[in-house]
Specification:
With 367 residues, this protein is α/β, with parallel strands linked by helices. Helices cover 42% and strands 23% of the residues. Strands 2-1-4-5-6-7 form a six-stranded antiparallel β-sheet, with no helix packed on it. It has a six-stranded mixed β-sheet with strand order 8-12-13-3-14-15, with helices on both faces. α4 crosses α5, α5 crosses α6 and α5 crosses α9. The longest helix is centred in the middle third of the chain and has 37 residues. The protein is globular. The chain binds adenosine-5'-triphosphate. Adenosine-5'-triphosphate binds next to α1.
């Protein structure tokens, strides 16, 4: 998959323009607050979702204007296609190959990107909730069944937690707990198995990318850590039984706390560099490299599903990385079209092949 050109009018601070992109690497260079991230965001919106900065649609329109228009010409499955999004207030109209679509969701099947933005560093730095969200987000996108089971699991979990609180006041209610345990364990077993399988795939690819970024100096490992032990992903019935046993073991704790203390909602993934937890022992550069490797790995797994490589949008990845790591990101990610922002002159000089776009107060020029 690749972007051929991008056109925008009244989009954030970007001056009306049409740019023709390189099929491999595109460096977006400029000082702070010039519009580099706005340009990546503009491409990202064609994936059908919302702004990766969580902005409302009307915030995408230039402060002084009433509408914005963005247009993408891209190649997917060897076919040249185009998509256009028009924003008026909080209203959005989507056109694919000139045909108006009912909703933005129709873009999802047409165009895909994987984005890295500095907020993704929380994958290493923050608590387990962010890492679970990373796994669940990817799996919900890949498998409808996962999305359904995940939503069911959370409903049942909320109901079980409410019941735990009620039992403290009305102990007779405890007999009704069994049915919630049974359901929680059924859906939970599937979630755990799918997450472990996905984490395994991520691990293999992330190892490969991290060894490239670090010039073979570091080994990255990812391990799924479950509150349910010794799991065989091919035996859902067995996982369910183990989950049920664990729910019974922890019943006293759960009643005391008023919430469920075991299950996939309490699981995590460990991200290890050279065998040590990146969160506790990794340098800034190592943590950034680990997250990048994870995101590149996510893109590889997605490529297998799409049978085509998604476009990579890398926002502000080069800072805190030494020149060898930067060289890998600028010149050695094979087969992907990459858009990468930077604000240091030395960083852009490392680009061996591809296009360089300079952003100055929203005006984009090709150098
Ligand atoms: N709707 C809008 N209309 C006009 N300007 C906007 C709008 N939304 C954001 N901006 C402006 O865009 C600029 C920020 O652009 P952007 O986030 O792309 O910066 P950047 O070049 O990526 O900077 P940095 O290197 O600091 O990350 C800000 O000056 C902001 O005021």
């Amino acid at each position: 998959m690749r972007v051929n050109s991008l056109e925008f009018e009244n989009f954030r601070n970007l001056e009306k323009n049409k740019i023709f992109t390189d099929k491999n690497t595109n460096v977006i260079f400029g000082e702070n607050a010039q519009g580099k991230t706005n340009l990546l965001e503009c491409i990202w919106l064609f994936c059908g979702g919302h702004s990766f900065r969580g902005s409302a649609e009307k915030e995408l329109i230039n402060f002084n204007e009433k509408f914005a228009k963005i247009k993408l010409e891209f190649t997917s499955q060897d076919r040249e296609q185009n998509a256009e999004i028009r924003y008026t207030g909080n209203k959005k109209e989507v056109f694919i190959n000139g045909v108006k679509k009912k909703s933005g969701a129709s873009l999802i099947e047409k165009f895909s990107c994987v984005v890295f933005s500095p907020e993704h560093l929380s994958l290493v730095k923050a608590g387990p909730g962010i890492r679970r969200k990373f796994l669940d987000g990817a799996l919900c996108q890949q498998k409808l069944k996962y999305a359904k089971y995940f939503s069911k699991y959370n409903q049942i979990l909320n109901q079980r937690n409410a019941l735990l609180k009620d039992i403290n006041k009305h102990p007779k209610l405890q007999v009704t707990l069994e049915i919630w345990n049974e359901n929680l364990a059924s859906f939970g077993a599937y979630i755990i198995a799918e997450r472990i399988k996905y984490a395994e795939k991520l691990k293999e690819n992330a190892k490969f990318f991290h060894s490239g970024i670090s010039n073979d100096r570091e080994t990255l490992d990812i391990e799924y850590v479950s509150t349910i032990k010794e799991i065989n992903v091919d035996n859902l019935e067995e996982i369910k039984e183990k989950f049920l046993a664990e729910l019974n073991n922890k019943l006293k704790d759960d009643l005391y706390n008023g919430y469920t203390t075991v299950g996939p909602h309490r699981d995590d993934i460990n991200i290890l560099i050279n065998g040590m937890k990146a969160k506790n022992f990794g340098s800034q550069g190592q943590q950034r490299s680990a997250v990048l490797s994870l995101k590149l790995s996510e893109a590889t797994v997605l490529s297998e599903i799409l049978e085509e490589k998604p476009v990579l949008l890398l926002d502000d990845v080069l800072s805190e990385l030494d020149s060898k790591r930067q060289d890998y990101l600028l010149n050695k990610i094979d087969g992907y079209q990459v858009f990468i922002t930077c604000c240091e002159h030395n960083d852009k000089k490392q680009l061996q092949d591809g296009k360089l776009f300079v952003v100055n107060q929203g005006r984009i020029t090709e150098e």
